[in-house]
Amino acid sequence: MRALALLLLLLMGAPALAGDASGFDPAAIDRCLDAAQTQGARADCAGAGMPPCLDYARQKYTGGDPDFPMANCLDASHQAWEAKLTAVYAAALAGAAQQEPLRRMERAWIGFRQALCDQAGPAGDDLTRARCLRDETARQAALLLSLAEPK
């Protein structure tokens, strides 16, 4: 029931979070990934951009649900990672000598992510599931990026 209420708030947009007022900056993802590549390291960028988003959401949200700022930022972060993954996947697909194995891999990964995140936390723990979806999407984007890097 709490999940449904949270989903409705996210879909309808609470007045304090109307429009794209999540406070999440998708460019934080690119900055983190660029810094990791510059350093020749593989960084965990899944949480990139979250602290400023949380600060912003906590200041703007005036409702009574203490989890709403985190849920809002996790959703915004996950959406940004989905967009990043879509772009990276399209580029990988365009550059692949054989596209079908990449398509099969991505479809299998989507099923894996769903199953993993469905089991990520206790029933009804929407924040744990949202964090899982965001983190796994970020890992997949980073993996596809690393596969595209020159050897």
Automatic annotation (TrEMBL):
InterPro entries membership: LprI-like_N
Residues of the signal peptide: 1-18
Short name of any one Pfam family annotated for the protein: LprI
UniProt keyword annotation of Signal present: yes
Domain Lysozyme inhibitor LprI-like N-terminal: 69-142
This protein's UniProt keywords: Signal
Highest taxon in the source lineage: Bacteria
UniProt protein name: DUF1311 domain-containing protein
Organism encoding this protein: Paracoccus thiocyanatus
